[in-house]
Amino acid sequence: MSDEPLISNGLSTMGFALPGALAVALAKPDVKVLAAVGDGSFLMHSQEIETAVREGIPLTVLIWEDNGYGLIEWKMDLEVGEHAATAFTNPDIVGYAESFGAKGIPDLPRRRPAAHAAYRAGRSGRLGHRLPG
Hints:
The chain is of the alpha/beta class. The protein is 40% helix and 15% strand. The chain has helices at residues 17-27, 39-44, 48-55, 70-80, 93-99, 112-121; strands at residues 34-38, 60-65, 103-105, 125-130. Strands 1-2-4-3 form a four-stranded parallel sheet, with helices on both faces. The protein is globular and about 45 Å long.
């Protein structure tokens, strides 16, 4: 199961990536797992970082921070031509992940070697990249 994406399609289930990645990591312990998730979706189940650390589940999480529910905003714009109540303020996600004992890597574009090392090591961590705008 190398380089295979697992996505929740159809209903576009927000919050699926992190628990889904945990499930894959448990079902396939020989596979390195990367969860790519938006900040809104991540925050819906972010406490699962604690589960991964406590249970020693190797998992890497890449979080795109844009301070909003991008999928909802896009669908609202598409359907009704405008959007409302889709923006929010993020906590310090690196500090939040580290408070559970995970390794946080801020500013991913400048820290690619550290990100690759965390992924290869197979330890629970959070990789973050704040999107412009």
